[in-house]
Structure formats: C-alpha cells, structure tokens
C-alpha cells in the first residue's frame, strides 16, 4: 500500500521463513531493489497506457491472459539478483528470476515490444541457438534436492551437460558412431567424467570446462567467459585444497576419487586454454592419486579409457612421451588377450571345435565368428607375407626401422578389428553383443597404447637427431636450422594415418587441428627432402616405395579432409601436393594396376581400403579397374 511519503513497498513472502542475519539482509536488499523508483515509474506508465488504450473489439473486456501479458511486459530486470549486471529488459515477469527463460536475442532485448506482437515465450521456443529448455521447477532450481556439491543454476547445469556430452563424443567417437541406437551408452560413458554429488571441486571444474566447451562450439569467447572460467578454476583449486586436507585426515577412498576427477578436469581445461605445462602438472597429480588408489586395477574400465586418452592426447600436443608407461594399460595383441581373459567369455574360435548355439541363430553372428577365426589365423605370426604372383617377384626395398615396423603391424591388427566391429555391431544375439562390447573396450585401450609407443619412437628420433646435430659443425645449431630425417617423415605419416583412420571419420565437427598440424609438418618435412626424391627428375633409390606410402597418406588426407578448406590468408586453398606426387610415382614403380598398389601397401605398411580406395583410385590411371 502506498504511504504518505509516496514510496511503494512490496511485501515478499519467504518460504521457508528467513531467520538468519544473512537471509534477512538478502531479503531487505531485494525488497529495496524491487521498490526502486524506476519500477514504480514503469508500473505507473503501464497503467496510464491501459487507461488511454481502447480495446480492438468494442463491448468485449480484456481477458485475464491479455492483462497478465501486459503487466508481464511492464516489469524490468530489477527483479534479477544483484550479481547480474545486464541492461533493463522488458517482458520479464515478477518471478522470472526464479525461472529458466532460455536464450534471448539481442534485438529483442534492446527494444520495447508492441502488445500485438508475439509473446516472449513464443520467441524463446522458436529460438534455435539457445540452450536446451529445462522444466520450470521451484525457483528455477534444477537441483531441488541439493544433491550437487554446490548449488548450480539452470544455465550452469546446461553448460555441464554440454561439456560432458562433447567430451564423450570426442573420446568415444567411434563407439557412438557404430552404436547409435544404444540409448544407455551415453549415460554410461558420462558417468566416467566424475560425480557431481561428490565435492564442490568437481562441480567447479565441470563448470570451467563447460564455459570452454560453449566457446569452442560457438567458435569464439563471449564477453565475461574468460572471467567466469578464471573464477570457476579458482574456486575449484580452493575446494581442491580443502578436499586434500580432509582426505589426509580421514583417508576416505571417495575423496580420493573426487580429487582424481577434479585434477583431471582441470587438466582438460588447461589443454583447451593452451597451457600445456599446467595441464601436465594436473595430469601428474591425477597419476599420483591413481597410484595411491591402487593403480589402474582399482578403476572402472571406462575411467581408465578416459584417463589414458587424456594423457596420450597431452603427450601428442607436447611431442613428449606419456607420463605413464604404455604397458600399464596395454591389453596386448588380440590373440593373446583372448587367451588370457577367459572370464569375459572371449572365445578363440580357431581353437574351439564348435560355435555356441547363440551364434548359429543369425548369419551376422556366424560371419562375426568366422572373422574372429580369420583374425586369429592371420595375426598368429607377425611377419608380413611376401608378394606372391605368377610373375617373378620384384625386389621392393624399404628403409622402415624395426621399431616402426612393429608399430605398423600392431596398427594392421587394430584395423582388422575395426573392420570386424563395423560389420558386427548390428548383431542381435546377447552373447555376441557382449563380446562385441568387450571388443570396443580392448580396441580403445589398444589404440591409445599404440599411439603412446608411436610417441616413444618419435621422441627417440628427435633425441638421436639432436645428438647428430651436436656432432656437426658449430654453424649448424638447432636454433638456426630445422633438421628433418626420412625416418621422422615415416613416423609422421604413421601418426597422421592413424588419426585419419581411427578418429577423424567418426567426428561430426570436422578435422581436428592436431591432425592438420601433422599434415603441415609432414608437408614441410617432405619439401625439405624433395631434392633427393624428386619424382619429376626420375630419381630412384631404396626409399622410393616408402615415399609411395607417404604420398598415399598425404593424398588421402588432402582428398578426404582438406578439400575446399579456407586458408589462413583468406580464400579457398587447394591442397594437392601429395596427390600430384602420388599420381606421378605410382605408375613408375612396376605396378600394373591399382590393386597391386593397394595389396603392397596393406602388406608392408598401413592401408585402409574401405577409406583410401575411394580417395586414391581416381588419382592413378593404369588402364584397368579394381
């Protein structure tokens, strides 16, 4: 009721009743804000407009809905909490600060709407760029039972959901692509990203990663994102210190798990922000916590996959060895893994006299079993088979080192498993499906282990190269000259093709910058070695067939991922160096048709016919078809 002083007071019901000093202070602050003279002026102006306006249909009174809509449009952002500093906006109800209204267009926020236009709710529902709408709960609380470590708003909860879904889609991209109809798969994978109910450190770290993920999806950081990320990281570190102190006093295993999750999420934030050194500190802390917990044996399998993916990805970014030896999580070759792990119902079909009855019920299951049989027979012995034909065998030398040759052999086995997974995921039998799921688990751990060994080989080459540079003249210093060896080019080609086969085809967001960096380094290295291997001059040496494989890897990358890409200098850049070299070199190496080229690359190097035949077949004309 208005008083003699002319000031209006708004009495606010408190539920539950506020009795503490801080709560009373907040209530008084909100009451003073709600009774601001600007709000009174807006209400007075709205009443004046209602008196002056005439209804569109004479004789019909305004409906309660229209009156509520007009009153709803007359309120300002003064109802928002004091922490929000946005400009006053029309069209927000008195209790809108307790509700999730969704994203709003800037043009709609800057102007006053006419009553004849559509309501704000219509704009919210038709807005496609906003966050996912959540049900309106009491006071907008998306966590009504206070189960999270810290209270989170609906917007913050949507950021956490976004970051977790994007992380899962990146780490387990192939599995999500091959099993799209498994509704519970995403929930199972998200559980490996930490429990939000454990500790505030995990919640704040998730929020920091959520802001970074939102900026990555939008392609830029909005105003205030960096400040929000810095604030959430600071709160996560502060909560993490308190968590470490409590854990040292109690020795709780749950607190150790929360420490592991928080440090791992903070490391992921630093990787996206470009601070690799700080990310390495967080990853090392995570590794130490895992050792205290009892090693990898104490963790669920999905959490192991997530962590090893993170440490191998960080090592790839820094071009260093992984902080944990690959033997700690490597399941070993498929044949030996099946022989050791009988408890998971893996069967060595080559040793069994009969196939279980559950596999005989469908042709897909029997095909899957025969594929396992062929796989065990083909990979029981590692040496590659020679080129067999009716004509005399041709000497095709190679300079691939034994260490790289072993890695390529492991990748060929992994590629065979990948083809079996693609053909066998529609299997309907329960036993077969369980074995295929275990195959996914083996494949993920094996892929990261092979990449870790590839990083070890790369670091060995770098160290030997630095040693050779120190033996050269004083003028040739590493700070003034970039040195490249042919073995480094072979290792780069292996790392590039590994990502182009096992990672990039399953992503919906396009080529990763790390893969593009591999391509750029390989192109720069080959151009430095080009005088010794210029195809146009007809030069031949022992590395010609190795160059053919390198050209095939680069040509596949250019055709499959880099066609029509916008260059940094502007405009569309045509990547065709490796394609041109492959077109010139392949017909000149005594190959009669394209199938001979593919068979040679499959047996001696790494070649995925499912992907590379489509991109390379039209580059060479032998006068014959596949």
Terminal Cα separation, in Å?
A: 89 Å
Low-confidence stretches: 1-16, 54-140, 342-366, 376-392, 473-482
Largest sheet: none
> Average pLDDT across residues?
71
Put simply, the count of helices is 23
Beta-strand proportion: under 5%
What would you call the shape? elongated
Helix content: 55-70%
Whole-number count of domains: 4
Kindly state the number of beta strands: 0
What is the ordering of alpha helices and beta strands?
HHHHHHHHHHHHHHHHHHHHHHH
Structural class: mainly alpha
Rg, rounded, reads: 31 Å
Question: How does this model look, in words?
Answer:
The chain has 626 residues and is mostly helical. It has four domains: 36-130, no CATH class; 154-329, no CATH class; 336-477, no CATH class; 484-626, no CATH class. 56% of the residues lie in helices and 0% in strands. It has 23 helices and no strands. It has helices at 21-34, 37-52, 64-73, 106-110, 120-126, 154-171, 173-178, 185-190, 200-218, 225-250, 253-273, 276-293, 301-318, 334-340, 363-378, 402-424, 430-471, 486-502, 513-528, 544-561, 577-585, 594-604, 609-616.
Question: Summary?
Answer:
This protein is an all-alpha fold. 56% of the residues lie in helices and 0% in strands.
What attributes does this structure have?
single chain, 626 residues, mainly alpha, 4 domains, 23 helices, elongated
SSE topology sketch:
Blueprint: H1 21-34, H2 37-52, H3 64-73, H4 106-110, H5 120-126, H6 154-171, H7 173-178, H8 185-190, H9 200-218, H10 225-250, H11 253-273, H12 276-293, H13 301-318, H14 334-340, H15 363-378, H16 402-424, H17 430-471, H18 486-502, H19 513-528, H20 544-561, H21 577-585, H22 594-604, H23 609-616
Helix pairs in contact: 6-9, 9-10, 9-11, 10-11, 11-12, 12-13, 13-17, 15-16, 16-17, 16-18, 17-18, 18-19, 18-20, 20-21, 20-23
Biased composition (Low complexity): 354-370
Region (Disordered): 46-66, 354-396
